[in-house]
Every structure is written in C-alpha cells, then in structure tokens.
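Translate sequence into structure tokens.
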Amino acid sequence: MKKIAWIILLAAAMSVAWLPAGIASDDTSQIILMVHDSFSVSKTVAAEFENRNNVRLRFLKAGDTGAMLNQAILSKNNPMADVLFGVDNTFLSRALAADMFIPYRSPHLDDIADELELDPTYRLLPVDYGDVCLNYDRQWFAAKGLAPPARLEDLTAPAYDGLTVVENPATSSPGLAFLLATVGHFGQDGYLDFWKKLRAAHVQVTASWNKAYWGSFSAASKGDRPIVVSYASSPAAEVHFADKPMEESPTAAVVQKGTCFRQVEFVGILRGTKKSDMAKKLVDFMLARTFQEDIPLQMFVFPANKSAVLPAVFARHAKIAEHPVFISPQDIAAHREKWIEAWTETVLR
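Result follows.
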C-alpha cells in the first residue's frame, strides 16, 4: 500500500542518530540539531557533513512544530541542542520574541529568494517552503462528470456538499495554514462566513493530516472524501511512492490565486551553544546545495536555495502557487489564537 511505502521509505532514508529529550549539548565531538517529527535527511547527506567537519551530527526529535518550540523556549537558558530547525512562519514571531537565537548571516543567503527571508535580524534563516492547498481525487471527479474545485468558494456550492475533509487548525499545522489561507482570501470580516457555509456543506474535520489524508481522502484510502487539505507537492509523493510506475498522479493540487498558504521553515543557532563555530557550519550546510537537493524527496517541500536542482518527479508533479495568500508573521502572532478560537466556535460547536 502507498501509505506503508511512504512510511518505510522515509524511515529508511532518515539518519539513525536520534537522541532522547533532555540530553546535554556540551560534548565537543558532536553537534545536536533539534527538529520536529516530520524532519528527514538521507544518511549519506548527514554523513557528508560529519566527514567534512569531523563531528557527529545528532538529531533531537521534539514533537510537532508547536511542541518543539515550547520545549526550546522552556529550556532556552540551558538549551538541549545547538541548532533548531523547523520553526515556520506561523510561529516565527513567537520564536523571535523568546530571544533564544543568535544572529548569523550565512553567505548562502545570497542564493535564497528574498521573499523567503522574513527575519531581517538573521536569527532565523529560510531552509524550505511549500504551499498548503486543496488536493482532489482525479478519478473520482472524472467518474462523476463533475469539475474539480478551482476556488475556495466552490467548496460551499451544492455540488460539492459532503466532499471535503480538513484538519483542525488547533491540532494540525496544515489545518492552521488552511485557516490562514481563508483569513487572507476572505478577510477577517469574511472568513467565518465561509466556514459557516462550509459547515453547512458538511465538511469533515480531523485532528491531523494523517487522519484526513490516509483515513478520509478517497484517492489514498477507503474514505469517501475526494477533496482534502494537503500540500501542493503531495501529487509528487503519490507518484514517487506508487507501487507501480505512473505517468500522472492520481491526485492534483488547486493552486489558483488566493487558494494556498505558503509555509516557510527556518533554521537558527540557539543562544547558549558552546559550539557556535560548528553551528554556523551546520547552518551553512543546510542552506547549501547538497542538503537543499535532498529536501524534496525527504520532506516533500521545495528547497529555499534557488540553485538547487529538483528531482525529476518533483519538478514534474509538485506545484508552486504563483499567488499564495500572505499574512505577516506579526499578524499571525497577534491573531492566531483568536482566529483558531473563532473557527472552533463556528465549525465545531
């Protein structure tokens, strides 16, 4: 099954040097990178950094992005790692306000698109990005003779009643990103009206992406929902992990103007590290081509480095929204909890 293939292949590619939470970071023979649970890197890529710098690269898994950031903030006076990866633009302002990163302007920033550099103080540097958007089941819509959705507004039309599954923004990163897409598209005065209509159209809400995609989405499970909130790169993953070779993905992403929210993930050096020179080398390595070209088939997002060459399957089947919704990290920090609470009252209660 595709689900099993995704899990097995990703697990096989990941470095095995994982650490339990709470391990000290004062061993000069190693450097520790704190990451979220979705982080993945090829063993050969991790080994290249180790061999080049005569150091052991170890990884500290710390839950999802929110949980990881909470742990980092609580331990900032005695950091558990040297470098942290995985803060995204929905948590950027909160991470910077905690004052737990030291500034570092990597020379590889010259190869990073300016629009991804959201921290002018260089405490958090962009590593990758991807668009959260609607995905749909091509075969389902073809069989029904129904046009797939092209706009967010389509989801509330009678023909699409009961077809959509989304993730709870209080518990899911893509769920939060999709909520932000609706805030940006409909405005703060209009997004709840959209969600009221979507609730009336019998939208299904799950706690996580896994439950939505692998449990309800008709193209990936025995579920009966042909529309799901996922990533614009998910069709590439469907092709890459297919049991049999395929020319076209069974799924497609909706990337028209105003339908996607772009997530950007960052890396930063934790204040208090005793290995700042090696930490800078690790940041440089993560922004350079070797690591950047490993990203697409490890985490199925786009590398931030403009010179990185995309794998063929990714270049052909993964999409980039030309006009994604943009909300500043400052606005997200100021309103995130209010928007989630209002969404909860509107959709779940």
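Note: The first strand starts at residue 18 and ends at 19.
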